[in-house]
Amino acid sequence: MATMTANQIIASLNKIRDQHSEIEKCVDLIYEVQRTGGPLAEVITILKYEKPLVHSLLKARLRHNPGINLILGISMDYDQAKLKLATYS
User: Fold this and answer.
1) What are the DSSP calls for 7-68, one per residue?
2) 40: Cα separation from own chain's centroid
3) What is the DSSP secondary structure assignment for residue 3, as one 8-state letter?
4) Rounded (10°) angle between helices 6-15 and 40-50
5) Which of 69 and 57 is assigned the larger pLDDT?
6) What is the mean pLDDT of residues 60-86?
7) Which of 28, 43, 47, 65 has its CA 20 to 30 A from that of 14?
């Protein structure tokens, strides 16, 4: 299982617009980061601050996935999340 690089994750995040129509792209990214053991809490924190509509839609869409639902409720510092993602390898 190949891990997504920081650049791949950042590029994927940048492609997602804060619109309802983007929810499935976001779900795919979340599942891919989770599947590969990537920085899921950081990705979700960035979504929470940069794409609040998509983040709220994710909470509703993934409410039946206990692992991701738990992480959706975790709050971490936005700047710290950005730094950790940028230095993720």
Assistant:
1) HHHHHHHHH--SSGGGHHHHHHHHHHHHHTT--HHHHHHHHHHH-HHHHHHHHHHTTT-HHH
2) 6
3) P
4) 30
5) 57
6) 90
7) 65
Q: What is the pTM of this model?
A: 0.90
- Per the structure block, which two tokens stand in for 58? 């994710």
How far is 61 from 44, CA to CA, in rounded Å? 14
And the tokens for 86?
């940028």
Alpha-carbon Rg of the chain, whole angstroms? 12
Q: Quick check: 26 and 34 in contact, CB under 8 A?
A: no
Query: In this model, does residue 1 exceed pLDDT 70?
Result: no
Where exactly are the structural domains of the chain? 6-86
Element (H, E) at 84: helix 78-86
**What is the identity of the amino acid at 52?**
P
Tokens 């996935």 locate to 65
